[in-house]
């Protein structure tokens, strides 16, 4: 290993000389304590290094040793239920050694070297294998079974493979290759800045069901899709991300707290173990990996954290899992890029962000997708990436938001005004969009209801017309509207308050299945149709609006999934009451 010397220290940026044998993106050990760093620029024999730990105490003349390897993560049993920092150091293990705060130079292996795992072979001696081929399984948690795959660079015939209990470093199989015998362990390493290969990328046509009505109905994302959640401070970005992590129809959750406040990551740590997975009844942590690089941790590690998270997600995708990755927030990741770019004295782009901001954002989001995995069994896996963006002052024209919107296909625009009115999720239905609607429509119509797309369009049309009618009301007052238009305003209000508004902390309302969403929306629209019928028959609007059945429509969201027949009963009661109004001309109070 080549040793250089520090000539300059500028915060997390260290410049070292005599590094002519090193390469860009090599991991180095900096100073006497061996702080972890990564070379991000080479000029002659001088290397610019971003250090992933606190650099106080470093000075010119201190040694820098290159490892000759890129920044990599360890992939294998032990990832589930773990919490890592931005460069995959296990925070629980560090706390056991050094206390509640990160200590410089603490060196802990990401995966537990002592714990043994029960390996069950699925391949046998004599099988010809190559990269990505499954050779066995390990039951990591009660709900997740890892597939052990042949790592990169090994291709040949299996000469030995044995069932039993192994640590991640012990040899489970040997393969005869052209270069001799190669050994396989339960663990493999992968460079975080290079995407893991796949056989074929597929067109995503299945929705990632989130249980959030405004998203699933109006602005859905696919399994293997990308979405952006921009919004100002206090608009509910983190709660939306948490709801995704809890309820999204994904088998694996990777949550990256990138520059997040420590108390918000604490909420995740406290909530997730207590939350029951609706599919298995087990703790949500049984299928979750947390990457925590809070705002008080070294800024350089924040830049690496998103790559650490997406590489872990790709590893589980390669096993055939559907993975949901939440990055909260990519704005703070971009700020870390800006800080390092400034210290490198690079030419700044918009608002001081580096000129390569757009390409870095694209590189990250393009690692999502639904793919046919490398291997011999045609596994299909998917990574859905949901990135929160925190534009300063809610300005969506700022560079990070714009660079993100050029890449992602779903935009959930959070509205501070809705949040102030306590309307959550505060996703603005007039500003948001999903470019997956056309490709998801056939799946929705086939698997939910034949007229799903039709009623969705009807509901969105009413909301858009409400915005136009509100302009008239503000100018000349509500009395200028016809009774038909005033009914439409009431229906739009019902869609907003009874359907789109959702309580994340209510045990029933926090999640709504697609079938219940369909029944609820159909019920609200039925009130519109029946109300118009009554108006045409001569019933006064006041009598229609005073019907007691409207309270039942408003409270349909609190009907449990197991009692959805009650929604059908409300539908029947609505039709009956409207008929009574038409025939008797009186208000129905039952």
Overview of the structural elements:
By secondary structure, the protein is α+β, with helices and mostly antiparallel strands. Helix content is 33%, strand content 23%. It folds into four domains: 3-70, Elongation Factor Tu (Ef-tu), domain 3 (Beta Barrel), CATH 2.40.30; 116-188, Beta Barrel (OB fold (Dihydrolipoamide Acetyltransferase, E2P)), CATH 2.40.50.100; 200-434, P-loop containing nucleotide triphosphate hydrolases (Rossmann fold); 452-584, Bovine Mitochondrial F1-atpase, Atp Synthase Beta Chain, Chain D, domain 3 (Bovine Mitochondrial F1-ATPase, ATP Synthase Beta Chain, Chain D, domain3). Strands 8, 18, 19, 20, 21, 22, 23, 24, 25 and 26 form a ten-stranded mixed sheet that branches. Helix 11 (452-476) packs across helix 13 (514-536) and helix 12 (483-500) runs antiparallel to helix 13 (514-536). The radius of gyration is 28 Å and the shape is globular. Mean pLDDT is 91; it is low at 586-590.
């Amino acid at each position: 290993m080549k040793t250089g010397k520090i000539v300059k220290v500028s915060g997390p940026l260290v410049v070292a000389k005599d590094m002519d044998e090193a390469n860009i993106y090599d991991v180095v050990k900096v100073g006497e304590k061996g702080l972890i760093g990564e070379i991000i620029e080479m000029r002659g024999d001088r290397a610019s290094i971003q250090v992933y730990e606190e650099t106080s105490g470093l000075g010119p003349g201190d040694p820098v040793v290159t490892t000759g390897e890129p920044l990599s993560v360890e992939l294998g049993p032990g990832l589930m239920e773990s919490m890592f920092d931005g460069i995959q150091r296990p925070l629980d293990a560090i706390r056991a050694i050094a206390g509640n705060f990160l200590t410089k130079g603490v060196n802990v292996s990401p995966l537990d070297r002592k714990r043994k795992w029960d390996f069950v072979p699925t391949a046998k001696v004599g099988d010809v294998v190559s990269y990505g081929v499954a050779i066995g399984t390990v039951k990591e948690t009660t709900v997740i079974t890892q597939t052990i795959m042949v790592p990169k660079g090994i291709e040949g015939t299996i000469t030995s493979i044995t069932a039993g209990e192994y640590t991640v470093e012990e040899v489970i199989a040997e393969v005869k290759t052209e270069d001799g015998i190669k050994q396989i362990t339960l663990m493999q390493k992968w460079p975080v800045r290079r995407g893991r290969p796949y056989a074929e990328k597929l067109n995503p046509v299945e929705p990632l069901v989130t249980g959030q009505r405004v998203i699933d109905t109006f602005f859905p994302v696919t399994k293997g899709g990308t979405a952006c959640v921009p919004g100002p401070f206090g608009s509910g970005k983190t709660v939306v991300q948490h709801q995704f992590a809890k309820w999204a129809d994904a088998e694996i959750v990777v949550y990256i707290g990138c520059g997040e406040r420590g108390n918000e990551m604490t909420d995740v740590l406290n909530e997730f173990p207590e939350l029951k997975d609706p599919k298995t009844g087990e703790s949500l942590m049984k299928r979750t990996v947390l990457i925590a690089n809070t705002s008080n941790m070294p800024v350089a590690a924040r830049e690496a954290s998103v790559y650490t998270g997406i590489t872990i997600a790709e590893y589980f995708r390669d096993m055939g899992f559907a993975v949901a990755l939440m990055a909260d927030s990519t704005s703070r990741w971009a700020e870390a890029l800006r800080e390092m770019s400034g210290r490198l004295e690079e030419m700044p782009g918009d608002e001081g962000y580096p000129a390569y901001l757009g390409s870095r954002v694209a590189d990250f989001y393009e690692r999502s997708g639904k793919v046919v995995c490398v291997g011999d069994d045609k596994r299909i896996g998917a990574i859905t990436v949901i990135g929160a963006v925190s534009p300063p002052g809610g300005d969506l024209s700022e560079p990070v938001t714009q660079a993100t919107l050029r890449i992602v296909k779903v935009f959930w625009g959070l509205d501070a005004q809705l949040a102030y009115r306590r309307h959550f999720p505060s996703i603005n239905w007039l500003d948001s969009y999903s470019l997956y609607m056309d490709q998801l429509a056939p799946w929705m119509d086939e698997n939910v209801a034949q007229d799903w797309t039709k009623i969705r369009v009807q509901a969105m049309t009413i909301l858009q017309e409400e915005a136009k009618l509100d302009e008239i009301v503000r100018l000349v007052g509500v009395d200028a509207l016809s009774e038909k238009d005033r009914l439409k305003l009431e229906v739009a209000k019902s869609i907003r308050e009874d359907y789109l508004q959702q309580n994340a902390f209510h045990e029933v309302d926090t999640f709504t299945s697609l079938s219940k969403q369909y029944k609820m929306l159909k019920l609200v629209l039925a009130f519109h149709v029946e109300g118009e019928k009554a108006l045409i028959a001569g019933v006064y609007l006041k009598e229609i609006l005073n019907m007691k059945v409207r309270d039942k429509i408003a409270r349909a969201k609190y009907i449990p999934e197991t009692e959805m027949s009650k929604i059908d009963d409300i539908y029947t009661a609505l039709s009956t009451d409207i008929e009574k109004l038409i025939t008797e001309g009186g208000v129905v109070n039952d």
